[in-house]
Amino acid sequence: MHSLLVGILRIGIAAAVLFGLFAQAVIIPTTAADEVDLFAPYEPYALPYVIASILGVACVQAALGAIWMLLSMVERDAIFTRSAFRWVDAVIGAAVLATVIALGAALHLTLDAIPSPDDGMDVESALFAALACVAVGTAFSMLMVIMRTLLGKAMDMQTELAEVI
After folding, report:
1. Which of 12, 91, 140, 148 is the most exposed place for a label (fewest CB within 10 A)?
2. Contact 101, 130 (CB under 8 A)
3. 80 has a pLDDT exceeding 90
């Protein structure tokens, strides 16, 4: 059953990474171009937000790659080793970087006078979405730091147990 769950998780990770690549190459740039076509004043904002979006997706992909490596360690029963910290730190780093990108977008949306079309797309909605990303990213980062601490404690306990046996 354990190998089945790891296999299912790997299929999900692979699908998410492939969808992320498709989003980076097609969806994000196309959507930005469509928005500029519909509302020309968005043109100066298109490239920076496309770059920020692609970097945000890359952060998710990096975290998924680190999780893939952690799954490999779980399969080998090697999760309680020092090398696991490197992959947990990679997840934390990717989450923090994505949160900083979202915070930058939120600050820009707050401080800059961005024009808004009359089709219902308000800057406030984008600001709310960016702030939601900041909140979720911050919470996830803190959770991962706690999980890293728990991994360290479990490693210490396993070392103590091995010494006793």
Report:
1. 12
2. no
3. no
Ramachandran region, residue 39 (left: φ > 0; alpha: ψ -120 to 50; beta: rest)? beta
Show the tokens assigned to 17: 């990474």
Q: Residues 144, 92: contact at Cβ < 8 Å?
A: yes
More confident residue, 42 or 99: 99
**Apex 85 CA angle, 79 and 86, nearest 5:** 115
Is-contact 110 127, C-beta < 8 A? yes
At which residue do the structure tokens 């699908």 appear? 15
Residue 51 CA to residue 57 CA, distance in Å, equals 10
- What mean pLDDT is predicted for residues 84-104? 97
Rg value, the chain, Cα: 20
**What's the pTM value of the predicted model, to 2 decimals?**
0.88
Q: Is 130 exposed, middle or buried (0-12, 13-18, 19+ CB in 10 A)?
A: buried
Structure tokens belonging to residue 40? 């020309």
Which residue's entry shows tokens 């952060």?
A: 59
| Closest to 85 in 3D by CA, of 129, 148, 157 | 148
Cβ neighbours of residue 148 closer than 8 Å, sequence gap 6 or more = 85, 88, 89, 92
The predicted-structure confidence for 112-125, as pLDDT tens digits, reads as follows 888 877 765 678 88
